[in-house]
Amino acid sequence: MATYIAQPDLSRPPVLRAEIRAGRFDGPTAGFGGGALQANLVILPEVLAGDFLRFCQANPRPCPLLAVSEPGDPRLPTLGEGIDLRRDLPRYHIWRDGEMAEEVTEIGAFWRNDLVAFAIGCSFSFEDALREGGIPLRHLDAGRNVPMYRTALPTRPAGCFSGPTVVSLRPMPAAAAIEASILCARFPLAHGAPVHLGDPAMIGIADLDRPDYGDAPVFRHGDIPVFWACGVTPQAAIVAARPALAITHAPGHMLVTDLPAGQAERVLAGVCGLA
Amino acid sequence: MATYIAQPDLSRPPVLRAEIRAGRFDGPTAGFGGGALQANLVILPEVLAGDFLRFCQANPRPCPLLAVSEPGDPRLPTLGEGIDLRRDLPRYHIWRDGEMAEEVTEIGAFWRNDLVAFAIGCSFSFEDALREGGIPLRHLDAGRNVPMYRTALPTRPAGCFSGPTVVSLRPMPAAAAIEASILCARFPLAHGAPVHLGDPAMIGIADLDRPDYGDAPVFRHGDIPVFWACGVTPQAAIVAARPALAITHAPGHMLVTDLPAGQAERVLAGVCGLA
Fold first, then answer.
1. pTM for the complete prediction?
2. ipTM of this model?
3. Which of A26, A33, B210, B252 has its CB surrounded by the most CB atoms within 10 Å?
């Protein structure tokens, strides 16, 4: 008679977060959490929180704000019951004076009563929608990270935060680009529609084969480049602002919320008044 | 004391149709009718009506069907009270054996008890939406007709009807093309989103400066070509089918309905079950 060992159901966000919190899961979160909304995390001292809040609200395409914590409070109850931002992400980056200093799996030792956490929408939501819509995602098919580029499109500065808009690139046929624009427009909290397509030089990208972040792109015959505002933009703004301390998620190691991605816009519109 | 002569209010569709019917208005309808939905007209003998109906339903992007008359009935009550298709369009084309034979201002003399009329959505609806959305329309700014091209994109044949998809071209910047895709997707009964953008050769267009219908395009620096399925496609199908008799509107001289363009999709979805 076989012995069955109960496995945690990592498609359930609270279970996944509990496994992360217990130190049994420290990898990338893509594909886990059963299609729940995932989020970028930025944590800053309260003295900079007002500037950063205004930066996000002035730049909603790269920095769609999902939730903001109370100072010193590591919870984000609108995104999930019992979330503890100090331990519920698999990996974090600690930034000092605008430079990445350290990668850690929990931030309890860095927590302070003046820290404010910002959850920012992430492209995983719209990539699910694109895939369901039959749109090819070349980087995922090739097992690569999405290519990302600093552009000549400036963000709107707010206080000490400024810098270039960072974009992600997804090559696809022209008809797919049209369909992707329509689909992604339904997800304003996940970067929305593309910001550019076609000639990369028009947004200040010199060489597609040399992205500033991520892996080189994969093009098939007939593909055109399609560019989305990217959640790495806040990290470029942190580099520009050089705060003494900032904490972010490590790339790909996101906050997994309890919100179904397809319903997140509607839920948050009621909860936070973002829409 | 000045004398005022009452002028008919041509922004009201029933008034405009009455002026047309009385022979006092025989020009293009663009800009008249106060933003009401305008329609392409195709009239065919009942023996071909089943084939053409299936052709429209198989090719909804170029041939979005708004209404179909009963055989011999020149009214289309779902599109406007009192419409008389024999006299309410400014100009008609009479086709014999697939060739345009004659342009007339009314078709009472050609009407037969076996004729069936088809009203097909028109690009005027989405052009209004694009203009309101701040999207440039180069051909209108230059006072030109939109350029149209026969493509290598085949329609789905139905009975004797077949032929190429005809597309219209609107040059605009890439960011406007993204926004136009999103806006036009809301108007499936007015050709919907673009079918292609970028390289014309990929849909079989050899030379943009030599359109098959309409005027040459106007490009500004940074513009890319954006292509929509076009209501001229049914005329190409009539050429292919070579019916003994067909009647259409003359280009630009449309049926002006009573439906506000922005609400037409919703109204017709209830009335005709098209959605």
1. 0.82
2. 0.76
3. A33
Dist. CA A168–CA B156, nearest whole Å: 37
Is the separation of the CB atoms in B32 and B10 below 8 Å? yes
- A172 in contact with B at a CB cutoff of 8 Å? no
Three-state DSSP class for residue A101: strand
For helices A174-184 and B174-184, angle between their N-to-C axes, nearest 10 degrees? 60
Tokens read off for A154:
């400036």
Task: Give the span between the Cα atoms of B220 and A178, in whole angstroms.
Answer: 21
Question: CA-CA distances (angstroms) from residue A209 to A205, A217, A229, B119, B259?
Answer: 10, 6, 18, 50, 51
The two structure tokens encoding residue B201: 């050769």
Looking at beta carbons, which residues of chain B come within 8 Å of A179? Answer: 193
Give B165's contacts in chain A (Cβ within 8 Å). Answer: none
Please report, for residues A65, A95, A125, B255, the alpha-carbon distance to residue B91 in angstroms, rounded to integers and kept in the order given. Answer: 55, 71, 51, 10
**What's the rounded Cα separation, in Å, for the pair A182 and A133?**
11
Chain centroid, CA A80 distance in Å: 17
B60 in helix, strand or coil? coil
Q: pLDDT tens-digit profile of A186-197?
A: 888 889 999 999
Determine whether the interchain pair A196/B175 forms a contact, defined as Cβ–Cβ distance below 8 Å: yes
Q: Report CB contact under 8 Å: A193, B179.
A: yes
| Residue-wise pLDDT tens digits, B127-186 | 888 988 999 999 989 988 899 999 999 999 999 999 999 999 999 999 999 999 999 998
CA distance B242 to chain A (A): 32
Contact A255, A39 (CB under 8 A): yes
Residues of A in contact with B178 (CB under 8 A): 181, 193-197
**Are residues B174 and A196, on separate chains, in Cβ contact within 8 Å?**
yes
Q: Which of residues 210-249 of B touch A (CB under 8 A)?
A: 222, 224
CA distance A273 to A204: 35
